[in-house]
Amino acid sequence: FNNSGVTNEITYYLQSEKKWKYLSRIPHVEQCNFGSVVHKNQLYVIGGCFNQSLEEDVHPFGFRYNPVCNNSTNPWSTIAPMHRERCRFTLIAVDNYLYAIGGVSESEYPLIDDDLYTSGEIYSPEADEWTPMAS
Questions:
Q1: Which site from 19, 31, 33, 58 is most exposed, i.e. has the minimal number of CB atoms within 10 Å?
Q2: What sign has the CA pseudo-torsion 113, 120, 40, 29?
Q3: Cα-to-chain-centroid distance, residue 21
Q4: What is the pTM of this model?
């Protein structure tokens, strides 16, 4: 990791060796405060920002990592972006959907109420589509 705390590297812990191992790089610039979840053996990395201070570049983009992809040279694919840019949010998988809940938008500290999201979005991997969710 670099000194900024922002990276695009993904590592995993191999319990049998009690070591962290390199897995891959997110196909985007170095970022932080994104949501991540595993759904049906695929890793989703969504949203986030390009620096820790939230001064700029909060984004809605998403990527899916498929470890058994037929195209073994690039197991990453881009998914539909969320309707709202968000970082520091909760991302969970329930049944056949992903839920992005809460988070903040682009802002400088201190955060004001307009920067805090109380709503969420639902993602359908099958349709590759986000639907806004009421707060």
A1: 19
A2: negative
A3: 20
A4: 0.82
Q: pLDDT, tens digit, for every residue of 32-65?
A: 788 999 999 999 999 888 765 545 577 888 999 9
DSSP β-ladder status, 90-94 and 9-14: unpaired
- The domain spans of the chain are 9-133
Q: How far apart, in whole angstroms, are the C-alpha atoms of residue 22 and residue 13?
A: 9
Q: Supply φ then ψ for residue 67, to 5 degrees.
A: -65, -15
Mean pLDDT (whole number) for 19-29: 84
State the burial class of residue 135 (Cβ atoms within 10 Å of its Cβ: 0-12, 13-18, 19+). exposed
**3-state DSSP assignment of residue 113:** helix
CATH homologous superfamily for 9-133?
A: Kelch-type beta propeller (2.120.10.80)
Under the banding of pLDDT at 50, 70 and 90, the label for residue 119 is confident
CA distance linking residue 47 with residue 63, whole number of Å: 9
Do the Cβ atoms of 69 and 47 come closer than 8 Å? no
Token pair for 44: 């989703």
